[in-house]
Amino acid sequence: MEAVIGVVGAGRMGRGIALSYAYSGQRVALIDLKARSTSEWQQMVVAGKAELRADLNFLASVNLLNEGEVERILNLISDHHRGDASTVLEQCPIIYEGVPEVMSAKEAVFAFVSEVVPNDTVIASTTSTFLVTELAKFVRSPERFMNAHWLNPAHLMPLVEISKSEQTSTEAVTQLRTSLEAIGKKTVVCNASPGYIVPRIQALAMNEAARLLEEGVASAEDIDRAIHYGFGPRFAILGLLEFIDWGGGDILYHASNYLSKAVDARYQAPEIVVENMQQGRNGLRDGVGFFDYSEVDTGAYRKRRLGEFVALMKHLDLLPKRPASEADEPRSA
Questions:
Q1: What is the pLDDT of residues 220-255, one digit of tens each?
Q2: Count of CB atoms within 10 A of residue 145's CB?
Q3: 253 lies in the same domain as 186
Q4: Is-contact 95 175, C-beta < 8 A?
Q5: pTM of the full predicted structure?
Q6: Whole-angstrom Cα distance, residue 44 to residue 9?
Q7: Which candidate among 62, 129, 143, 278 keeps its CA 20 to 30 Å from the CA of 262?
């Protein structure tokens, strides 16, 4: 029998996950456990289908699928209510929980799911609020449980952050990563920590942008322009830690030292940056930094990364402007 991905919670995130799997050809059971009258449930299904169809029509409009595929993909997503949820869930090797960020609501879902699925069914919460260690206590056999943080819009953003507890088994993490990567997602794994990876870094950057505006440093338009054409493209190619290694950890330390005195102590470099600098682990030029380059052809590595950056700039039509060629210059009379 063909495996079906289970998604409990038919809101925006649940529909986004369902669409991600269906777009890649997998069947999905979209399950709403909330007590509703028949008419209320039917109205919810109709509204949900309309939103999914709109998303698929948009994908067709940008040539990510043919218009004729819209209904076929939509038909891979089946809607279920509490009455038939047990029968459906027990057939799903992986189940995502995507109900509202209310602890009691999540506890109720995990209690229901734990009662009806085998002990080896992988269960993942899509919470952006609660730690995996806070939710695992509600799941029978917590070794198969983890958080899977999708970024919105779920059907377009490639990254899914997986957060595991000490109880989470390696096998369960591998099964979830394999499932996600099979539909084109990129996964990272982190321990239980508030904010995962992206939201934690993102919150700092967004707050700093707001402070720049608040302090009158620049206009909102110019702050965002700086992100569009500076911060964003750079870090589409190099990761933050990789970028530190390119420039040198000591450069970051001295810049942070200046900013911590001139602006605020929040800019002080963390101890790991200080330790790396003291130990001569400044990055590429030392052969080691946050990454080990001892067996890397750094010249070829630099060329490859710069080539990727040029390709991105070309795609975005942001390459440096060249002078007009002689053929393009106006001829003298």
A1: 999 999 999 999 999 999 999 999 999 999 999 999
A2: 27
A3: no
A4: no
A5: 0.93
A6: 12
A7: 278
